[in-house]
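Continuing the series of single-chain predictions for the mutant panel. This is the parent chain; the variants come on the following pages.
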Amino acid sequence: MRWIPRNSPETNETSETSAREFAERLAHARNLSPLIARLLAERGIADEDAGRRFLDPQLSDLHSPYLMNGMRAAVERLSAAIERHERVLIYGDYDVDGTMATVILKTAIEICGGSCEFHVPHRILEGYGMRDEVIERAGADGIRLIISVDTGIRAFAAAETAKKLGLDLIVTDHHLPQEHGVPDALAVLNPNQHGCEYPSKDLCGAGVAFKVAQALLEKYGRERLVPSFLKIVAIATIADAVPLVEENRVFTKLGLQELRRPVNPGLRALLEVCELTHGRTVTATEVAFRIAPRMNAAGRMDVAKDVIELFTMKDASRAREIAQHLDRLNGNRQQEEARITAAIHQRVDAAPELRDAFCMVLDGEGWHRGVIGICASRVVDRYGRPALVISRDGEEAHGSGRSIAAFHLLNALESCGELFTRYGGHAHAVGFALPSSRIEELRERMNTFAKARLEEKDFERTLHYDAEVSLAEVDGAFFAGLQQLEPFGMGNPEPVFVARGVRSVAEARLLKEKHLKLRLQRSPDAGRQAPTMEALGWRMAEKCAQEPVSTGALLDIAFRVERNQHPEYGGALQLILSDYTVPVSATGRS
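Parent structure:
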């Protein structure tokens, strides 16, 4: 892995000079350290006002919902439904984003006096997207208004079905539209549709639903309740891995603060299952790796409506039952993911042509469709190439794909769109279905498309780091400065630092046969009794086997800093390794 300074000319980001100038401008205004000012500059913050919005976002920084195309028509139709006591059907999706969008809109409509039902598709039986039969069933049941959340931007057939039945359809979505337009609906709300000038283009589906809820609550004089929705939209925004900048940063920064005071019985139960005790600050990392996986497990392994029931449940005892059920499902998901990932590794190791493909397409009979997206991410992490993972079920096949920064995966699918029965997604994440008989053609065409657009250097794994420091600098004040930049995620990466010539004071240990644990000497000049720091390398067992670390070894390390929340460690700082290497000078090799 090649280590590159984040602000080097190679990364085309802010120069050292502008970082220093920015530090000088903000030093007195916000009492920032030069390092924090530099990290802000790397994130495109170039003046005091932008610094204030980044470091201290306020509810007033939210945009007016009516800047989004279709908002006025949507709110007017929803208001009419509320006044006429019409039942509204929310058509959602089965992941965290879709279920949280459903909860947000359902709650807002009911607060304003409306009556709401919802439909979340079963991942295996129905798959992603809006289906005609659901719309037909809703019409027969007396529904006259359907509003989609986190889905629908490519639901042309469903929109036609609704129109024929005399149903009004409002589409709210964030996925990329097709080039030739959007479905024929009463209103389409998507900041990425052509002609929409909404300033924040990277909202998740729950973010778009939140804007509808915000407008509706303001219309009914309930705007004081808007902050109570931020916890939910923050969870969805983090889980969906959209950039945590602009309005998304307002959602997540304020929403994570609100998670310290959960009132909703379902949310309280979920935090307990995740061992995130009430009153402590929940980080974006904990949402992404502890809360979201349990919520996603419902849609992956069972039925996603359990999540909506959890968040709309008033009975604390029942809420605990659902939260524990989600926890068990997540354990099942982990086992299934490990099984499929092991099968993929075995297959790739035995077939060099798969490993060398510019876009890896891997398929297996009966692979659980609920986890193939995660498995695709694992393939990308391991091999550094775009990957599609496909589950075959007789004559039908369903797939999920993940990509690298240099490759637009949705464009690749669109280049052979006639192969699919349906598909959609983003530049770096897609889902699709196709006949099993066409998988081999898909493999060939994806590889050809990728070869025309990628070079071998695009597969080289790189690590961008923010600054070089000594471990002696990493103390409480250092960490407090970093906390000002939270929450971290896409668009605001957690800072990575490099320390060189760090001595390991004990031989490396493996945890659960997967993770690496080191104890490192903080100061190189204080002898063997110098203070030490723990360092963890998640999933680094294989690297450690290839590059062993013995007692007294000198290492160059790339790392993040976090506080160990385990009670026996008392909140001590620890390093999370991104990579390490034994310098040539330390080994005597030439």
